[in-house]
Design brief:
This protein is α/β, with parallel strands linked by helices. It has 3 domains: 2-95, no CATH class; 160-236 and 385-524 and 538-589, 3-Layer(aba) Sandwich (Rossmann fold), CATH 3.40.50; 240-374 and 620-665, no CATH class. Helices cover 44% and strands 16% of the residues. A hairpin with a 2-residue loop joins strand 15 (517-530) and strand 16 (533-546). The longest helix is centred in the first third of the chain and has 28 residues, at 2-29. It starts with a helix and ends with a helix.
Length: 666
């Protein structure tokens, strides 16, 4: 801020004034006495110090007026003293180009008194004061932050700049700009030293496999939700929260959670031009199926999304009886439910729709759920092996490995983040408004994830609850495309922006605008030739210039980070690769100085770690289907194929527990 600069200027003036006064006092009082010492040294080498001390200051000063040679020596020495005073008072910063980083980037020296803008780069002191400085050999005292930069001294001492406050961060870095190795991995390493929990979007799984062993050595519970190869990770039942609410007889909570799941999944196939009835109908059908699964499944191990899919796939299609009667088993089953059954209430929007429209709802929902036909996904989502609330209590690191080559699985990551957030909010509400252990949600390639519901609102209040978001995107258009009118609220709630690299012109223009404007001096000259002679004129004026122009933003040095903090001047920090950090060796890698050799060694280490990662054996996922007479198999929990021979599907034996339902819901 400008006030910070003014304080520093005042402080500098005070220090220089005091220094000049001290020098003058020493010059007048001590210098005459000091230059007397050589004469005593020549006369009596042994007793010179004693004789000189006894001679005293006063007699030495009097000698200046009685001994001409002595006075000449004193006056001659005033030359270096005066030079020293000039050096103290001279503002050497005026000789530096504060607003230029290097040739080709940055503008000329500022001029005027800020008539056209006052932006500038932070100086060294401000860089240390506006963020937190951590020397890696020192403890972090249970508070970490996103890494802004690191500088290593000649002696190997590492100085790290980071932000420990409850502030969200936006990272702008195009592909291969070094987000992972320059910011995210050092941040994971540093957060582990602070003992903070973290949830990390990890498209390639590189952060997970690089830091897993180190995190475990620090006492972390490491969870990997591997959407690329589910058998190499943990399990997560997205109906787990709904099932808990059902078990606790909290019908309202179960319905709310079911609708949340339905909303996130349903939006994947909702086009911009579609009327709301289509999305509402699809969400109605899906929420009803989720609630039906949670409330009516015979066994708890059947309550998962594979059951939801097969309920609709098998019983959502019309069946024609031998006498020509056509009916949809799912509709008949829903109609037989008690009037206040949560599934029946949720199904209302879909049930009253015309036949063709309802069929379209079913088809769209089935399309959205097709990923649960994949045995790997069905197995991964059939069980829950970790509790969301524990992330805010115990040291936990969750890695969301999100494949860029299988976009249909992206929705699972969005749903996981939303459910974790809701659980952490509940935990905060139980603990006085803040979770016991701060959780850092670091979403790499955030722009490729489906929209998180009400994300703008989540960002607004998350920091106070101990939940800190870091969003890494390639360019600003990604957020605008996903969140539309809420995009500005989201970026505005990210109080720290870290810029690395972009190829997007609009992003470069925005960064240029955020660096601010300052006042520069311009020259203009003109000449004219007339019949009576030749005239020339020269003038100097003031104009406005951005601290960084858009083309300079596009040419930014990727070995530096451009930091745009809220209410502060822009700053630039050195940002080396992970291989130049002490973290590199702590994470299990070596540095020979040969980049190619180091990369190959690291590749082999990571490959070995993947090979040693235990693979979960896929189990036969048990599902629940209502007893539909002859169409059910005897076990009721296996996959049931619909009959192709026209066997009549009867509901005669169904609803044998209707009396119990009436007691529960009426």
């Amino acid at each position: 801020m400008a006030t910070l600069s003014n304080k520093e200027i005042d402080k500098s003036i005070r220090i220089r004034t005091i220094s000049v006064i001290v020098v003058i006092i020493l010059d007048v009082l001590l210098l005459p006495w000091i230059i007397k010492f050589p004469s005593f040294f020549v006369k009596d080498f042994v007793n010179a110090p004693t004789l000189w001390f006894n001679y005293g200051l006063v007699r030495a000063i009097k000698d200046l007026f009685s001994q001409p040679d002595y006075l000449k020596l004193f006056l001659f020495l005033q030359l270096p003293v005066s030079a020293f005073i000039i050096w103290i008072t001279w503002n050497v910063d005026r000789l530096k180009k504060k607003n230029r980083i290097k040739d080709g980037i940055g503008g000329p020296e500022p001029a005027g008194t800020g008539q056209h803008g006052t932006s500038r780069w932070q100086n060294k002191n401000e860089m240390d004061e506006t963020v937190n400085v951590w020397y890696t050999e020192m403890p972090l005292n249970n508070k970490g932050g996103i890494v802004f930069g690191m500088e290593k001294s000649k002696g190997g001492k590492e100085k790290v700049w980071l932000n420990k406050e409850d502030r969200h961060t936006l990272i702008l870095g195009a592909t291969r700009s070094g987000k992972d190795r320059k910011i995210l991995m050092p941040t994971i390493w540093e957060l582990a030293k602070a003992g903070e929990s973290m949830i990390i979007g990890d498209p390639k799984g590189e952060s997970y496999i690089t830091t897993r062993d180190y995190l475990q050595s620090k006492g972390y519970k490491v969870i990997a939700l591997n959407l690329r190869d589910p058998a190499l990770g943990n399990q997560w039942n997205m109906l787990n929260q709904v099932n808990k609410a059902v078990d606790n007889n909290d019908i309202a909570k179960a319905s709310e959670l079911a609708w949340n799941i339905s909303n996130i999944i349903g939006k994947q196939n909702f086009g911009k031009g579609d009327q709301p009835i289509w999305q509402n109908g699809q969400e109605s059908a899906l929420a009803a199926l989720i609630l039906l699964t949670a409330f009516n499944s015979e066994f708890k191990f059947q309550r998962h999304m594979a059951t939801v899919y097969h309920l609709l796939a098998l019983y959502g299609q019309p069946v024609i009886t031998p006498n020509g009667f056509e009916f949809v088993p799912l509709l008949e089953y829903m109609n037989r439910l008690p009037i206040k059954h949560p599934a029946k209430a949720a199904f209302a929007v879909a049930s009253i729709a015309p036949y063709k429209m309802r069929a379209s709802f079913f088809t769209t929902v089935l399309s959205s759920l097709r990923l649960f036909t994949d045995p790997n996904i069905a197995d991964m989502t059939a069980k829950q092996d970790h509790e969301f609330a524990d992330i805010g209590i115990e040291k936990t690191a969750v890695f969301l490995i999100i494949p860029d080559e299988i976009s249909t699985r992206d929705v699972l990551a969005t749903l996981y983040i939303d459910q974790v957030y809701q659980s952490l909010v509940e935990l905060a509400n139980q603990r006085g408004g803040r979770i016991p252990r701060r959780v850092n949600i670091i979403l790499n390639e955030f722009g490729n994830l489906p929209p998180i519901p009400d994300f703008d609102k989540k960002l607004t209040v998350a920091g106070g609850r101990g939940i800190r978001f870091t969003l890494a995107i390639q360019d600003i258009t990604q957020i605008k495309k996903l969140y539309k009118e809420n995009a500005q609220t989201i970026t505005g709630n990210c109080h720290d922006w870290i810029y690395l690299k972009t190829a997007d012109v609009d992003t470069a223009k925005l960064i240029s605008e955020k660096t601010g404007k300052y006042t520069v001096e311009t020259e203009n000259a003109s000449s004219s030739i007339q019949s009576k002679g030749h005239s020339m004129s020269h003038g100097v004026g003031l104009a406005q210039r951005a601290l960084l122009l858009p083309d300079e933003v596009l040419r930014w040095n990727i070995n530096e980070s451009l930091i745009l903090p809220i209410s502060e001047f822009p700053a630039r920090y050195p940002l080396p690769d992970l291989s130049l950090w002490s973290a590199n060796s702590e994470l299990g890698f070596s540095s020979t100085g040969d980049k190619d050799v180091d990369m190959e060694n690291a590749r082999q280490i990571l490959e070995k770690r993947w090979d040693q990662t235990p693979r979960r054996i896929l189990e036969d996922v048990k599902i629940w289907l209502p007893d539909m007479g002859e169409s059910s198999d005897s076990e009721g929990g296996e996959f049931i194929q619909s009959n192709d021979d026209g066997t009549q599907l009867s509901l005669d034996n169904e609803m044998n527990e209707s009396d119990e339902y009436e007691k529960d819901f009426l």
